[in-house]
Amino acid sequence: MEAKRYLVPARVHRVEQELQKSRFLTTAAPAPTVEEARAFIARVREEFPDATHNCWAYVAGPPGSTAQVGMSDDGEPHGTAGRPMLNALLHGGVGEVAVVVTRYFGGTLLGKGGLVRAYTGCVQQALESLPTLERVPKARLAIEIEYASVDGLRRMLPAHEAELVSEEYAATVGYQLLLPLSRLEAFHKALLDLTLGEVLIEVLEPRQ
To answer: What domain of life is recorded for the organism (predicted)?
Structure first.
């Protein structure tokens, strides 16, 4: 079960630069799924319908993952925009990210090498200043314990970054918790130690 944490965009972010009289606007956004990536790309295209090009790329997964990626040169010479943008994303250390580079042509041809450098640089510039947050894959647990273990359990929660979702009091006490997948094994062991094995634990929902 993959439990790795990684950085994702915190929100939509835009940077701008001018190269050889062409104006480049680079917009980056969260893209946890292919559908959300494509919806974001469509919104930017609608925002800049008069642009010469709206080239794009996305990685809808962990940093460096090529399982769900996409790219488009949007009319630029083949291989000069989408592929360099995707390469920059794959090596950028941020996951679940989509980027659109909007170009307004300024009259000076950049050539294939110049275009590759320009589109690569645009994505790198956006990533350098991109606000990020940490994505923490989590599990939802259902736990049933005796009343004598309640205080001990509550004291354990912060150390394991566990969040109490719900509680139910009957003959025993039932809790639902969210905690990082990476903490699951250690939490399970600590809970068995605390209760001397008198506990029911069920993983309801591992969330990658």
So the answer is: Bacteria
Domain end point (choices 82, 110, 134): 134
Residue range 19-53, pLDDT digits in tens: 989 999 999 999 999 999 999 999 999 999 999 99
CA angle 131, 46, 59 (to 5 degrees): 45
84 with 170, same domain: the answer is no
CATH number at residue 125: 3.30.230.30
Q: Are residues 115 and 147 in the same domain?
A: no
Do 63 and 148 sit in the same domain of this protein? no
Average pLDDT over residues 60-87: 95
10-23 mean pLDDT: 94
Three-state SS for the chain is CCCCCEEEECCCEEEEEEECCEEEEEEEEECCCHHHHHHHHHHHHHHCCCCCEEEEEEECCCCCCCCCEEEECCCCCCCCCHHHHHHHHHCCCECCEEEEEEEECCCCCCHHHHHHHHHHHHHHHHHHCCCEEEECCEEEEEEEECHHHHHHHHHHCHHHCCEEEEEEECCCEEEEEEEEHHHHHHHHHHHHHHHCCCEEEEEEEEEC
pLDDT in tens, 171-208: 999 999 999 888 888 999 999 999 998 899 988 876 55
pTM: 0.73
Domain boundary among 134, 162, 194: 134
Q: What domain range includes position 141? A: 136-207
